[in-house]
Amino acid sequence: MTGGRPARSTVLLTGASGLLGTWLRRTVPAGIDLVGLVHRRTLDGNRRVEADLRDFAATRAAIDRVHPDLVIHAAYRTDEVSIVDATRHVVDAAGAVDADVVFISTDAVFSGDGWPRAEDAAPDPVHDYGRWKARGEALVTVLGAGSAIVRLPLLVSLHPDDHVTARIRHGAASGTATVWFDDEVRQPAMAHEVAEALWRIVRLDRSERTGAWHLPGPERLSRYEIAQRVAGALGLDAATIERGATPASMVRPRVLDLAAARAVEAVGWSPSPILTTELPDPSADPVGSRP
Questions:
Q1: For the chain, what is the radius of gyration of the CA atoms?
Q2: What CATH number has the domain bearing residue 262?
């Protein structure tokens, strides 16, 4: 990092044992001392601290102990306390040690009306998860220069499994087809490519990093089409998945469309269509900090 930061920086990663956290650990660049923060889960190959982010005292103690230059807040849960309260705790504790925060948000902060949203578009969520993430974004914004919001689409990964892959594998193993909506359109991206782009954002000068970023995939696919790709990559029969429609009573974003002009220009964001190129071999790049 530049802009007054030391050449070698300490980054604290919340959600370090999750899907994105795993890929961030696998792709950590030289010059970064990465410390993973976990709660009730083990973490091999990295320095780590433990804290329940819903507990401010525990969060403050963990961040004080590491004293990072930057926190990547990638912890993933789907309840209000674990999103809004935890983010407030991370922001307050990071601010106390003058650390920047990169908050991992979601395309679901938008309504999904099919209109493309630029990075500076105001959130207009239609369901609770999007609303809670939008509130988290607002908390991070008050930190000012150096802190950023990165909105992600659905992430695709086979090692470790994303939630789509995990459901399909489990269904195939039990002989039960899984059902996927064909009327919800997303822009899925490969998790390892997103992780690499996130590190490029993190390493920008603080003034260049500040603000919102979008990292959508290059295709617009229904959830059913995403499941088809995954089943094909796993070598499973087409009968493993079934087509379904979103229940009329369920309020969800239907067609999410993120524009990514800033990421394309600033960090060269050029993602591959999902599951169409050779995937990285996790065993060739062990999880852990690089020298």
A1: 19
A2: 3.40.50.720
